[in-house]
């Protein structure tokens, strides 16, 4: 069994209170690692190290190109340890092998993109003010300081990269708190950062529980910004706690994304794409297409084909490359998903397939839930309004497009949505009416590192990725440089200055 220590101030150290987290393989409940568990004193040490590295260290003052080279080295080392990271991600989180492989590949690629961003000069002139003889005005972007990053368990390595990359590119120092359920690959990342030789304190990684390490980080007066990804429920709490010290906050939270099929969609493509939208990573994705809106005219045929295809999904050992559906991350998540399925049935929705744990004896120790499709769903039902975060699809029929758009927007969430149609212009018009941060047309889950990603409404605040994502990690400074030159010609000369 592997053992991991906290990474604080460039050193691997035990936790102050001797607490440990056991990482459990969701496929068979074997213990795969023991990880030191941070509590408040450890967070205090990590913030102190990050503070010192920011206030006194070289990192914020290094050139963008120098920072870029170190960030790129992380990307290179992820590629060098590719196989090991994939295996650990599967065992720690229950990701299927195929999904974990893509995650590690994208983690390296995303980090490479952030390394390029580090070299970007974000300085902008203020148009219209810099008249000759008056003043020059420029906007410069500066790092915020110490960033506290808190991440969930569904994409452990990728989420760590999405937080570290832009924060470091902009010149901040970071205290990263991985999820208590999936701390292992973040600790491997700590090893990579140590090997590269980042200045001590620039990156600190402290896995721990949300109510202990998480809250200590959010409340800490030495932290300038909180970058949080997780549920909307905890996101609200984080925002409230951060308000005490007026920390900047970006929140990437939950979703209940509407997947609208138009009657002129390419049916086979829409079927496959919709299955990917909901069943990818067992539905444990913030942007999963959990609410399917089907026109009444094609609903029966579409649903029949969807159920047939769902029967063919391979549920099994996530290490097996043939597996489509692995276990959920934990017993807690399995119980939560089964609880929602019961609630859906109790409220009158009809289970067309799934709705239970698999019957296969070989899977009995894993936290599995069969891919589940509900029909007869009303958009007001609990299963259509609350985030389940499991392989559970709600199918809702609609009469016309206005009806579909109205129901799609009738949600407290607004993270993503999708429209399937052969008529892309029509689909674009509908996409513009959907209140969501990303809308895919004939596609799903494609999140580009170059395009901003984030939520409308209670799906979050702020954006990740692209230049907008980088700017979220900067303060704006206006530099006003006098060009008048002569004392008597200054605007204030007639206002308060005594003459003579
Ligand atoms: P969660 O909200 O339970 O936990 C997220 C993180 O917050 C964990 O590290 C946890 O330890 C920490 N935390 C918990 N309580 C805290 C507290 N009181 N103070 C500070 N930190 C605390 O979410 P989860 O179950 O780990 O992940 C699933 C959720 O994440 C889903 O809602 C999903 O939609 C969301 N998510 C969103 C995105 C996005 O980009 N919008 C991406 C991935 C996951």
Q: What can be said about this structure in brief?
A:
With 500 residues, this protein is an alpha/beta fold.
Which terms summarize this structure?
500 residues; Aldehyde Dehydrogenase, Chain A, domain 1; Aldehyde Dehydrogenase, Chain A, domain 2; 2 domains; six-stranded mixed β-sheet; 23 strands; binds nicotinamide-adenine-dinucleotide
Describe the protein in words.
- The chain has 500 residues and is α/β, with parallel strands linked by helices.
- It folds into 2 domains: 2-253 and 459-479, Aldehyde Dehydrogenase, Chain A, domain 1 (3-Layer(aba) Sandwich), CATH 3.40.605; 258-441, Aldehyde Dehydrogenase, Chain A, domain 2, CATH 3.40.309.
- Helices cover 37% and strands 20% of the residues.
- Strands 15-16-17-14-13-19-20 form a 7-stranded mixed sheet, sandwiched between helices. The protein has a 6-stranded mixed sheet with strand order 10-9-8-11-12-22, sandwiched between helices.
- Strand 11 (225-229), helix 8 (232-243) and strand 12 form a beta-alpha-beta unit.
- Helix 2 (64-80) runs antiparallel to helix 4.
- The chain is globular, with a radius of gyration of 25 Å.
- The structure holds nicotinamide-adenine-dinucleotide.
- Nicotinamide-adenine-dinucleotide binds at residues 150-154, 177, 179-180, 209-211, 214-215, 218, 229-231, 234, 237-238, 252-255, 286, 387, 389, 415, 455, 460.
